[in-house]
Amino acid sequence: MKFNRVFMALLLSLALTLAVSGCVSQGEGAEEKSNVNSTAENEVLNIRANPVTPWNPEPIEPVIDPTAYISPQASVIGDVTIGASVMVSPMASIRGDEGMPIFVGDESNVQDGVVLHALETIDEEGEPVEKNLVEVDGQKYAVYIGERVSLAHQSQVHGPASVGNDTFIGMQAFVFKSKVGNNCVLEPTSAVIGVTIPDGRYVPAGTIVTSQAEADELPEITDDYAYKHTNEGVVYVNVNLAEGYNS
User: Known catalytic residues?
Assistant: First the structure.
């Protein structure tokens, strides 16, 4: 009899311990708590502050407009600002942990597999690395993406870099140490490195532009250019996708 009482006491103690630790179901409340914890964990994993490093002792959380949509499979880290109605698709990486800040303007889209990253913009003494910053409207950025910009699948913009308004960066295109103007098109697999692309120009598919002379001679976008209105349609689709996913 004494053994049974001891055994039952041990079972009761074990049950209470498991209940407190959440290992025993507690009905709807437990399920709701589990869902909240799961959501919080996902948010921590894909949208979070940058880590503390020798060149940046301050963790900074991303600032994301509530009308933007960030896929759970995308990553947004650190000193990043995401504007209104921005669509960030699965497997995109916007990583403000080395070069910062990164800015993405209203109604732009960051499609599947796109990478936004930048070279170090603060040294270990806390001083800005000016050569790795770009200036737009009096403000300095590691990466600046303007309004109504499309960054198509697997393209990369690596700072220091800026992309002007209403510009289309095609699939697998690459921008590095460059400024791309307004109303431009980088066709798929093209690259611009260390140059400034004037407004209203396009870079033909597969072309690599590495000198300012080449950039200045790029063809102008005219009414008969095949991709003149491509960006308008892509922006329209992605603004509505952001709204749809959020709803």
Answer: 98, 120
